[in-house]
Specification:
alpha/beta, Rossmann fold, 2 domains
Length: about 250
């Protein structure tokens, strides 16, 4: 049984989450509900839940304000948010779980399943990384959290040379030749890294443009990286890549 608290300043949202959990996640027991940061802090200190569903923006503060008062954080957190675009990407970079309002039942079930498997000692690292992405606009030192079964890796985006797909798995290749294999699709990493100078040259490869050494035109096209690795270029990506090179040359 997972003991949980719902913290959200919208009564109808608390009711919706409770109703969904009762129906879809019978092993989750709702200990209490709270409608503010202050009420949430009190409920957590009194009831010691395993899991909290935490709204980001409330009348008396934010979910982050609440978490600052909880040291150490010895419970799992699923954020509830209406934020989109940049903030959602920050959550993905930090490997923190969130539910976007209005809540999709399937997403709720998946989040609870993940919560069961979360190694809670890693939460503080993930939360710090989230704060960096929400407040730091400097892209040069952005970090991404990469989770495997054994470890949580905090990796600088600029140190990722290329990502290679193998079905539902992706191998992240780093500048020091380290390789991290994760159970995520290449599309997920493409969505995260596109604005940081990455380009998908092939259905199986996403490359960091800053590591390109040369482009070999023979046999349809081949990218040679500074590490010596050769990456094939899909025919439908060839013209797009050449156009990108031309723009880079014009800007230099």
């Amino acid at each position: 049984m997972i003991n949980a608290i719902i913290i959200d300043d919208e009564p109808h949202m608390r009711h919706t989450i409770r109703k969904m959990l009762n129906s879809l996640c019978p092993d989750v027991k709702i200990l209490s509900e709270a409608g503010s940061v202050a009420e949430g802090v009190a409920a957590i200190k009194n009831l010691h839940p395993d899991l909290i569903f935490l709204d980001i923006k409330m009348d008396d503060g934010t979910g982050f304000d609440l978490l600052k008062q909880m040291k150490p954080i010895d419970f799992k957190v699923i954020f509830i948010t209406a934020w989109e675009n940049f903030a959602i990407k920050a959550f993905k970079f930090s490997a923190l779980d969130y539910l976007l309002k209005p809540i999709d039942p399937d997403d709720l079930v998946q989040s609870v399943q993940k919560a069961r498997q979360t190694i809670q000692s890693d939460f503080n690292t993930q939360l710090e990384n989230l704060n960096e992405h929400l407040h730091d606009q400097d892209k040069t030192n952005k970090k991404i959290i990469i989770r495997t079964a054994e470890n949580i890796h905090l990796v600088k985006v600029k140190d990722i040379v290329f990502c290679e797909s193998d079905g539902n798995y992706t191998t992240v290749n780093l500048v020091d030749e380290a390789r991290i294999i994760v159970s995520s699709t290449l599309r997920e990493y493409e969505d995260l890294l596109l604005e940081y100078g990455f380009f998908r040259v092939h259905k199986s490869y996403l490359i960091n443009l800053r590591f390109i050494s040369r482009f070999e035109k023979a046999e349809g096209g081949m990218i040679v990286l500074e590490t010596g690795v050769k990456i094939p270029v899909a025919s439908r990506k060839r013209e797009q890549l050449l156009e990108m090179f031309n723009r880079m040359a014009e800007g230099s």
